[in-house]
Amino acid sequence: MTSSSRPLAVVTGASSGIGAASARYLARAGFEVVCAARRLDRIEALAKEIDGRAVQCDVTSAEDVASLAEAVGEQLQVLVNNAGGAFGFEPVADADLDAWRQMYEVNVIGVAAVTKSLLPALVAGQGTIIVMGSTAGQVAYEGGGGYVAAKHAAKAVVDTLRLELFDQSVRVCEIAPGMVRSEGFALTRFSGDQVKADAVYAGVAEPLTSEDIADIVAWIATRPSHVNIDRITVRPRAQAAQHKVHRVQ
Ligand code: 8X3
């Protein structure tokens, strides 16, 4: 518990989309939330809104991750490893290798770095680790390339960690969302090309929202402490499988 007597949660990538929504839902569920992200102005506004704290953190920076651990202190109840993203949609034959490295760095090394650094506090706080995976961690798709590879790796990190922590009071969980229409995911993937980003959701009546995922984050975090939700795969009703999407033209 924290000095405010609320249980403490950390959300990375909290400046927008699923991260910001998760911070709001956890605050509503009674947590003091440390909102961690690169964009300080955004997380400061969010922290003010939800009576939490803002810590500027690029999960690929060792210094930032160390500062985050320092801000957290000795006990932590929930860590949402949400920071991540897809950069590019090119086939493997045209792979942008720098983008692939960047994706591995943020989606995999970032998760490992933040988890490693906050693990003592999570053990002390009988905490819950939630990793934001993806259906891209379960199946390949054309153009998925580096993102598919990185999310498969993130899933492997989750499963490894759960085995390694089997005798500790720490839960290890993954949420694997399919099509979520969030503020920045598709736009980032297509380097700001709004037309290409919009095409991802074209004709889909109701893609998932960031709030749909945040609701699951808060639900996982508030289960009785002996209940470990290993993995939740969640898609909009219109997406029966990665390639099987109902679109109305
Ligand atoms: C997002 C799901 O289908 O764009 O992680 O890879 S997908």
Task: Tell me what the structure shows.
Belongs to the short-chain dehydrogenases/reductases (SDR) family. By secondary structure, this protein is an alpha/beta fold. The protein has a single domain, classed as 3-Layer(aba) Sandwich (Rossmann fold), CATH 3.40.50.720. It is 43% helix and 16% strand. It contains eight helices and nine strands. The protein has helices at 17-28, 40-50, 62-72, 97-124, 145-164, 185-189, 194-200, 210-221; strands spanning 8-12, 32-37, 53-56, 78-81, 128-132, 171-177, 231-234, 239-241, 244-245. Helix 1 (17-28) crosses helix 8 and helix 4 runs parallel beside helix 5. The structure holds 2-hydroxyethylsulfonic acid. 2-hydroxyethylsulfonic acid binds at residues 134-136, 178-179.
Low-confidence stretches: none
How large is the count of helical segments?
A: 8
Write down the secondary-structure element order. Answer: EHEHEHEHEHEHHHEEE
Task: Kindly state the percentage of residues in helix.
Answer: 40-55%
Mean pLDDT: 97
Class by SSE composition: alpha/beta
Provide the spatial order of strands within the biggest beta sheet: 3-2-1-4-5-6-7
Q: Going by CATH, what is the homologous superfamily?
A: NAD(P)-binding Rossmann-like Domain
Number of self-contained structural domains: 1
Radius of gyration: 17 Å
What is the straight-line distance between the termini?
51 Å
Would you count the extended β strands for me? Answer: 9
Shape: globular
The CATH level-2 architecture is identified as 3-Layer(aba) Sandwich
User: CATH class, anyone?
Assistant: Alpha Beta
Largest sheet: 7 strands, parallel
**CATH level 3 topology:** Rossmann fold
Protein name: SDR family oxidoreductase
GO molecular function: oxidoreductase activity, acting on the CH-OH group of donors, NAD or NADP as acceptor
InterPro entries: NAD(P)-bd_dom_sf, Sc_DH/Rdtase_CS, SDR_fam
Keywords: Oxidoreductase
